[in-house]
Design goal:
The chain starts with 7 loop residues before the first helix and ends with a helix. Helix content is 59%, strand content 7%. Helix 1 crosses helix 18 and helix 13 runs antiparallel to helix 14.
Length: 532
């Protein structure tokens, strides 16, 4: 329950701003985003968030009248159509290969720090941007925000526990392929044994992990656990695009290899060599263990406290509530609305949605839930389907986001039940009160939202700790610095890509020159031998 409310620090401020400034219908947005939450929770079985498209919202909130409701909807429909096309044609997989992991993590680091900074400004400053500082003892006071930050900090981060010495724990992975080896192959370390694979049938590999823990009596305890994971099946629908765009795939692999850390020389051992000839299910020891479920539902307590304070200090909001849902209206943008919405908000939003709402979410989900990864094509289809349905009725353009996923996980969400729970709440509030809830949300204490936003941003930025290699870390930090300095995710990602591909090009030129020198030396040596 608490985890379901973990991304409200980004959802509520943008929603309230769009309702107040742009005239968005709150009841309609709650209804459709609630439906989105329920469907995505059941489909992905992870706490997949539903958040506003931030660039579109930022353009609409920049100044009153910057975008009309039809123009906002046109921008959302345009972005969703592009993302859906990328996912359906397999081009999203190409984008995944062309963008190195270090660039994605740099974007996550920059966005996370931006969210945390924005949250802290909401806690500290009256206008949530800069001086003056908030007064101390008021319902919107500094003490309330700092107390919320301290409370969340002490509840969501668990105590350190004494762990078993890693030197006494031995983990071995035994992989049993479901398909037999070719006749005559011995499956040795040289990789001569090959699996007989049928591309038309899904294969399954069974990994048996045996953990041996030495206790004080020097005896051993065997803890076998068997897991089955399907090998990724070749997608027939995208095979044409993969073949046609093979040079671009190779280019992306070259860029990733250029900034990846060199392999350890010890990996040439027979045990590691054999792993190249038969796939293994990875044993992930720290990814799931590092996600500790908080015992105290911090986000739920913060939201309930905010509602109580709102009713206590602004009782007039109760009289403004009206029973009954709001009536959705069909929005049909004009030609001018399409042009303005696409040029002013749609095009700037497109790279952010592709990178943060699809690629970054999938990578973060794979890190947090390695047994339940989200595929880029599926996430792209989800983003496209949401807005191609809801935007025609005036619902806020929505997408998934790595920050929302990180926020929900940080506050305790682990399964798809969290967004389902949040979606049912949204649907219930929409059907019960409709757009009259805006008066309640408008008076919700901003410092409490800011406190939640701080930790959602910290969780998103924390994925940077997984980056290895000197080059990879440099690319990641450079990307994050540009994102922060320019306050533009697209510019940061493009800068990181340029840096990564420049490194790849430099390495290629150096290797090519070295090859030419060695080739020329070999020719001269052969000529000298022939003359003798």
């Amino acid at each position: 329950m608490s985890g379901a409310l973990g991304d409200l620090g980004t959802f509520l401020p943008l929603l309230v701003g769009l309702v107040k400034i742009a005239g968005l219908d709150l009841g309609t947005t709650l209804l459709f985003t609630g439906i989105y939450n329920v469907i995505t929770g059941l489909s992905f079985d992870i706490p997949m968030p539903v958040q506003p498209m931030k660039t579109i919202a930022a353009v609409a909130l920049a100044e009153p009248g910057a975008l009309t409701i039809p123009q906002i909807m046109a921008a959302g429909i345009f972005v969703s159509s592009c993302i859906l096309a990328f996912g359906a044609t397999g081009l999203m997989g190409l984008v995944t290969r062309l963008i190195p992991t270090a660039v994605i993590r740099g974007m996550q680091l920059g966005l996370g720090l931006q969210l945390a900074l924005k949250g802290w400004q909401q806690v500290w400053y009256t206008n949530a941007k800069g001086p003056p500082t908030r007064q101390a003892w008021t319902p919107e006071g500094l003490v309330l925000g700092l107390a919320a930050v301290l409370f969340i900090f002490l509840t969501i981060y668990p105590r350190k526990k004494k762990q078993q010495d890693a030197s006494n724990t031995h983990i071995a992975t035994i992989t049993e392929p479901s398909a037999p080896l070719e006749e005559g192959s011995d499956g040795d370390a040289s990789g001569s044994g090959k699996k007989v694979e049928d591309e038309d049938e899904e294969q399954e590999e069974i990994s048996v992990t045996v953990v041996t823990v030495e206790n004080q009596n020097n005896s051993s305890i065997l803890l076998p656990s068997t897991t089955s994971t399907p090998i990724q099946q070749k997608d027939r629908r995208t095979s044409f695009w993969q073949k046609a765009l093979q040079p671009l795939w190779a280019l992306g692999d070259a860029a990733s290899a250029a900034i990846s850390p060199p392999s350890n020389s010890d990996d040439s051992s027979p045990s590691s060599s054999s792993s190249s000839s038969s796939s293994k299910t990875p044993v992930i020891c720290c990814s799931t263990a590092s996600i500790s479920t908080p015992l105290i539902p911090a986000a739920l307590i913060i939201v309930v406290l905010g509602v109580i304070l709102t009713i206590a200090f602004s009782p007039e909001v109760l009289s403004s509530l009206a029973i009954g849902p709001s009536t959705p209206q069909i929005i049909v943008p004009s030609a001018l609305d399409w042009k303005t919405g696409i040029l002013r908000a749609g095009l700037p939003q497109l790279p952010l949605t592709a990178f943060n709402s699809v690629l970054s979410v999938c990578q973060l989900a794979e890190q947090l839930f390695p047994t339940r990864p989200a595929r880029p094509s599926t996430v792209a289809a989800s983003v496209g389907a949401m807005n191609l349905f809801g935007c025609w009725f005036g619902a806020m353009p929505s997408c998934h986001g790595a920050g929302g996923l990180a926020g929900q996980v940080r506050f305790g969400a682990r399964w798809g039940t969290a967004p389902v729970f949040l979606g049912l709440i949204k649907i219930g509030l929409s059907l019960l009160f409709g757009s009259s809830l805006f008066s309640l949300l408008q008076q919700f204490p901003t410092p409490l939202l800011g406190a939640m936003l701080v930790f959602a941003g910290m969780e998103l930025a924390a994925v940077a700790k997984g980056q290895t290699g000197e080059r990879g870390v440099a690319i990641m930090l450079f990307t994050a610095a540009v994102v922060l300095g320019m306050n533009n995710v697209a510019v940061g990602v493009i800068s990181g890509l340029i840096a990564a591909y420049l490194l790849a090009a430099r390495d290629y030129l150096v290797d090519y020159v070295y090859f030419l020198k060695n080739k020329g030396g070999s020719r001269r040596k052969r000529s000298a031998e022939a003359a003798v």
